[in-house]
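Board notes, transcribed. Complex of a protein with adenosine-5'-diphosphate.
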Amino acid sequence: MTGPKGERFCTRCASASSASSGRPHATPTNGTPRLRSLRSVWCGTYHGFHPKQGGSMTKDTTDSEPESAADADEPTAARDRSATSTDLDFDTVLDDEEESQGLFDDLLASEPIFENKEVLRPSYTPHELPHRNDQINRMATILVSALRGDTPSNILIYGKTGTGKTASAKFVSQELESTSQKYDVPCEVEYINCEVTDTQYRVLAQLANKFIEKNEARIESKIERLETVRDRFQSTDTPSDPTGEPDDTDEEIRSLAAEYDDVAAVDDEIDELEADLAELDPVPMTGWPTDRVYSTFFEAVDYHERVVVIMLDEIDKLVEKSGDDTLYNLSRMNSELTNSRISIMGISNDLKFTDFLDPRVKSSLGEEEIVFPPYDATQLRDILQHRADVAFKSEALTSDVIPLCAAFAAQEHGDARRALDLLRTAGELAERSQADLIEETHVRQAQDKIELDRVVEVVRTLPTQSKIVLFSIILLEKNGVHNINTGEVFNIYKRLCEEIDADVLTQRRVTDLISELDMLGIVNAVVVSKGRYGRTKEMNLSVPIDETEAVLLSDSRLGDIENVQPFVQARFDND
Ligand code: ADP
Ligand code: MG
């Protein structure tokens, strides 16, 4: 790959590099000559974490450095791949054309917009959380008991999506754990995302296994220390007093040794610990009776003295999917635990989810409640600005970009995730169009793109019957029917079901499915009165018709629905 001035560029990082000093990435040290013709150039830097990823190609003239150990494996991998790819003859492919055909050159030549895109991704945990001080301080005030060896009250956190609940809870838990290590108090935090881990079995199994793992590590380290003690007992001339060795500087080992009278006592303890270790039996992901999983978790957590904070994020999903048994069992554990105490922190997007809880669970879980209100546009601007400073090159944004992202996201119930997605997508769109600046139009395009992605995702995950109902509405719209009524939808729906061999639901169920599509924002339905003929629903599609149709047709469960269209068409033609 060559740059404007004829210099060659590292294929990984776009750094200019002298081909003679840099080593080709894909050329194995002792590998096949065939791959050498790939003409890759190596700037000499290990790229697992190259600071210049997506960086400027105009100036960087990184000198070749000695090959790092981490890079040493790479040629082997390249050679292995070449050994298996017998179909492709790189020599022929590449010798035809001396240089690349410029597939990437234009993209690399434009001035990059992002400095560090990761900062805008949902997986990034920010170190600063503006406008969440109150909530973070309240959590800390409640959880500080854990550092004093007391059981903190259970906490319930509420707030709509994107209001910073997860980010704040994770921040607080990191602080709690690091402070507990600093002061050497046994306090642990376990985080579980109940959207993923959504049954009682899985929650308890995951907790049990985490504690089993921690217990194992603890036991193994104790055994190791005891073995050192035993060695000292055995090597000293005065076995009855191994603590008195003048050159014994290891304070910890000495104080541990002081707990034992003789080597036999140490051996006994090691045997006991090894027996404990052998008993630790991880819970399989399915198959055990729930009672057994529960008691395994119980024993694992109670193995030694500690305060445990269990964070159940998206707790509403757990209750929705599997009821409140898990919470009931967890919340009454403290009365039976001997050594340890647990405290539960539940995080919910749904403000009403406690309505579905057993009153005992509700009162125990909600000892303390913290609300995360939606951000307003000004707060979102601050949050975006903080991230933008790190994420983008300076001067990469026009001044209206952040306010517009903030305004769009504020309309969307003050969702910081949406604001960050908008900003990142706007940046990506600008980058793709090789613009030097992110401008208002990119934000508007990003808004449309995200909205369309959302629709596609919602439609894609609809149950099959809802998809057939939606397809009926689309067919009606495509045939110019406006203000479609339930009866019309039902007629087409029935016909479609017969053609593709699907069960036919009653008109009443179909009306329910239409209401669900309405709630999801896919159709817009209004109830209209037909005088003495009663009432009916009239609806229109509120999503882009072609994209929605394409998503429906990509579902294999809908079989040949596309080929059914002519029948429906014929029906209109006959009308
Ligand atoms: P929730 O759990 O309430 O749905 P998250 O904590 O996941 O929301 O936040 C959504 C996104 O917004 C995350 O990327 C998070 O880092 C970011 N975010 C939320 N609040 C703030 C804040 N006050 N400061 C910085 N980033 C924030
Ligand atoms: Mg969350």
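The beta strands are 8-9, 16-17, 155-159, 187-193, 306-313, 340-348, 368-372, 484-485, 523-529, 535-541. Residues 200-235 form the longest helix (36 residues).
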